[in-house]
Request: fold
Amino acid sequence: IIGAVGGFITNLLIARISAHVGLKRLNQYFLLLGILTAFLLSITCNIYLFLFGMMLIGINTAFGLSITSTIFAHIKKEYQNYGLFHAFFGIGGIITPAVIGWILTMNYDYEYIYLFLGVIYVMFFVFITFSDLLENRKYESIKFREAVSIIRKKFVLPVLIMIVLEAGSEQGLVTWSGNLFQDSIGLSVELSSFYLSLYWIVFTISRLFTQFFENKFGKLNTVRFSLSILFVGIITMLISNQAWLFMIIAMGVAPVFPLMQKYIAQKLPDREVGLFNGMVFAASSIGNIIIAGSMGLVADFSLRLSYLIPLTASIISMMIILYLSRLKRLGVVSVTLK
Reply:
């Protein structure tokens, strides 16, 4: 929780800095930090310098998520396919271990992994520097009192609560389902690992199709349907002991985060989007700690009983969706709901 609060404060600082420096220039600074850090990790033999470098990589990654999301939120709305945007996180999670595995299989030293990372950073830096797609926009800086007022907006705080619940549920389901498959359903370690890998493939593909369903049914209706699939998927998997239903859960989880982030990002002024993205990733970190951690504590007594936590989270999230739909009907907020 302390780390998540620290992340929120850090992202608040980034929002203030980016207002003066500009998103493009700030992104260049952090890419330069990534290049220098990757080079440091590739040559150091000192454990303390190595740990310091790993810390810098973590900082760079966290900042990169917030900045990239903010940049994406500033492109034309017709191009803001958040499902595709988030799907590429999943694609990266599938490709990167394969690349690292190939480097190690070829008996190259671990230093080559960081050299590869440095090359990626250099490519991004060159693209950002010479591309005309990204403007170095600057805005009036956001004061702390304004940050509080953003959170207090009727349609912001409920969505942040929902992200806490759903991001935590997503992490908790992935973390503890391997144990469920082995200890409760009775699958082998190899088959459990196969289902977990298949989960991420279905999860990523589902996010690729998120925009299609949004265009057809609207953001909130798509999320409502996804939450229903998630709820039914968890219950039927626990009752039937069929691990393949974990893929149905993946389909239900996948669209929620990107659509709710898009829902808010397109309703805030441009200068507030950066701060909101910081809040989103801080909220997801808090959810990972609270929801996934709570599932682990309950699982010490009953693994199946721990799944009541994501089920309850889904019910609360559904109530939030109904609340946002009510705001639309009352004309309190403009909601894209078909």
Q: What stands out?
A: The two ends are 37 Å apart (CA to CA).
